[in-house]
Design brief:
The chain is an all-alpha fold. The chain has one domain. The chain contains five helices and no strands. The longest helix is centred in the N-terminal third of the chain and has 24 residues.
């Protein structure tokens, strides 16, 4: 079932543009189209059905508004120059890549693939050291 992370009111607040009632469905359609990019990134990272972290909901709402704002062309759309559109799109694409690669973890309780971690393992270089490691583990 298609879903968006933002609605026409969020779009209005983010871009500071008034949206007439007759255009609200149109804005929501662009938000839905833009949300498919986010869903593809989440699916690629295996995070499409996870419980989102507390901050992730607002982050995805903002990302959804930015992607829709770059796509949307109407009187109530943000009036962006070509360079501004390019910058917003580059930022959004970078965010989607980070989500896909697991560098930006949106699921609650996850730390992301770049989270620092250290783990030491004893090596059994001969039979005696291997037996010692097994005995400690038991």
């Amino acid at each position: 079932m298609p879903t968006t992370y933002a609605d026409a009111n969020d779009f209005k607040v983010y871009w500071g543009r008034e949206i007439e009632n007759k255009n609200e469905a149109h804005v929501n359609q662009f938000l839905l189209m833009a949300a498919t990019n986010i869903q593809a990134a989440l699916q690629s990272a295996g995070a499409i059905n996870c419980s989102l972290a507390s901050w992730a909901t607002d982050y995805l709402k903002m990302l959804n508004c930015i992607l829709a704002g770059v796509l949307y062309q109407d009187l109530c759309s943000p009036h962006l120059t070509v360079d501004e559109k390019r910058l917003y799109l580059e930022w959004a694409n970078d965010q989607l890549i980070q989500i896909k690669e697991g560098k930006l973890e949106l699921c609650a309780g996850e730390t992301g693939k770049d989270f620092p971690a250290i783990d030491w393992a004893e090596q059994g270089v001969d039979e005696f050291s291997a037996a010692k490691i097994i005995a400690k583990d038991i």
